[in-house]
Every structure is written in C-alpha cells, then in structure tokens.
Amino acid sequence: MNANPNNCCAAPEAEPTATTAAMPIWLIALMLVLLFLGAWAFDRRGGWFDPKVYGPYVSIPDVERFHPPAAGGPPPQGRKLFEANCALCHNTDGSGKPGQAPPLAGSEWVLTAGVNRLIRIPQVGLSGPIQVKGQEYNLNMAGMGAPYSDEDLAAVLSYIRNSFGNKAALVAPEQVKKVRAEIGSRSQPYTADELKSLPE
Ligand code: HEC
Question: Ligand 1 centre and the CA of 16: distance in Å?
C-alpha cells in the first residue's frame, strides 16, 4: 500500500484562477515613451489638422518655408512708402538725382549681406562724404524713417533691396526692432566712416 496518495494517482489539475498582478514598471515606461513619441511626431508632422498642410509638406513651418509670401517679394506698403518719402531724392527708379541723392540701384550700401548698417541710414540719417558705386557724394539725408513702424521701415528697405534690378534678402521687422534698440535715442546722423566701423 502506498501511504502517499500523490505517488499513485496525480490529483486532477486545478482550475486556472485569475489573480491580480502588479503591472510591470517597464510596461508603463514603454507606454509613456510611445505616447511621447506619438505626440512628438504629431506635433512635428501633423500640422494640427490644418487643411493647408498636405504632402509633401509635413508641418506649417514647412509650408511657409517652401511657399514664398503671395506677392513673392516685399510687403506692398514698401513701394508706397518709397514713392512717397524716398523717391523725391533717390528717384522712382532708384537711380538717384545729381546734387540731391546717390543711387540706390546697385548701391553697395543697399545690397549688403546683413542689414545692420542699412537700417541705421533712414532711422537716424546720413551726412558727409560717402562713396556709392565708385562715385563720391558729400550731402545730407535726414532720418525720415524714424517715425515709421518696424513693419514699415522693414517694408521700405525690403523694397529698395528688391527693386531697380536689386536682389537681396528681405528685411524683417524684428531686425529693425533690434537695431533700433541699439541706436537708442541717438539723433545725430551717421557718417559713412562710422557705419563702416559697424558690422554689416
Ligand atoms: C531729401 C532727400 C532724401 C530723401 C527724401 C531720402 N534720402 Fe536717402 N540719401 C539722401 C542723401 C543726400 C544721401 C547721401 C548722404 C551723404 O552724402 O552722406 C542718401 C543716402 C542714402 C543711402 C545710402 C547711400 C546709397 O545711395 O545707397 C540709403 C540706403 C538711403 N539714402 C535710403 C533712403 C531711404 C530708404 C529713404 C526713404 C525712407 C531715403 N533715403 C530718403 C537723400 C535723401
């Protein structure tokens, strides 16, 4: 006789029972990582369901980068302001007027890589000897751009950089704002030599 009944006949297998178990911490971490990646991808590429965002563009900044502004150039008020306030001396076609103002067309002062010097000219004025396209001038220009808003000054400078055969990057209102902050309350016109000592 066998004293231990288990040795003889195995007891029938117990019914499976459901028990609770703590969720593994790695699974929670994985879910959080996936959620984060999903949100990040949507944020970067989803365009927030904006109908303007469609392939091959993946986000609103992407669309803006590849689509130039409707006019493809300076804001329209640039031309109006130029013709009302600058053309009197610099001429409607930017060719300048003898004895009154040097040309803006092809001017090395307009077609600069940066706009740090350029913004200062209409803001404060310019006086004394200056070389423009190999020719010497010695006149005075007042700071007639000072009352303009940042947007308007940026627009008129963008206009002269992209008219009369000129082609250069547009000027942003933020750039005007920054340079204006550096100029402060100065009202004394610049000289060409002084501008040259500043970064372009
Ligand atoms: C009353 C006449 C007059 C008006 C109006 C005028 N300018 Fe000038 N501008 C001048 C003169 C004169 C000079 C050269 C100053 C010197 O000889 O130092 C000059 C120089 C310049 C220069 C640098 C030199 C060059 O030819 O590239 C720029 C840029 C310029 N002006 C932009 C403007 C803009 C933008 C406006 C309108 C907001 C404007 N000017 C309005 C007379 C004028």
Answer: 92
